[in-house]
From TrEMBL:
Gene Ontology molecular function: any one: DNA binding
Protein name per Swiss-Prot or TrEMBL: Helix-turn-helix domain-containing protein
Biological source species: Gordonibacter urolithinfaciens
Signal peptide: none
InterPro entries: Cro/C1-type_HTH, HigA2-like_HTH, Lambda_DNA-bd_dom_sf
Amino acid sequence: MDIHEYAIKRGVTQEMRDQARRATQAKVDAYDLSQARKERDLTQSEVAAKMGVSQCRVSELEAGRLATMRVDTLSRYISSLGGKLVISAEWPDKTIPLTI
């Protein structure tokens, strides 16, 4: 039995696999952000003070809750680390960078 057959037998749908994949990627992205903060020798509390939010909010962001994070909050987080948030709209034939 291969993995595809096993998933079917267990009732795991493609939608469930896609959701798990997105959740895993969110955790990886959040980990990368927390590592960027640590590389800059900043604590969550210091970043929170720069952002004007609670340390708890920074912790949530770094725990992988990016999907529910407002764009301006994420932008302030990245700015507090000395970076800038870049967002773009993409199609197969075109990419449009969006200014925040």
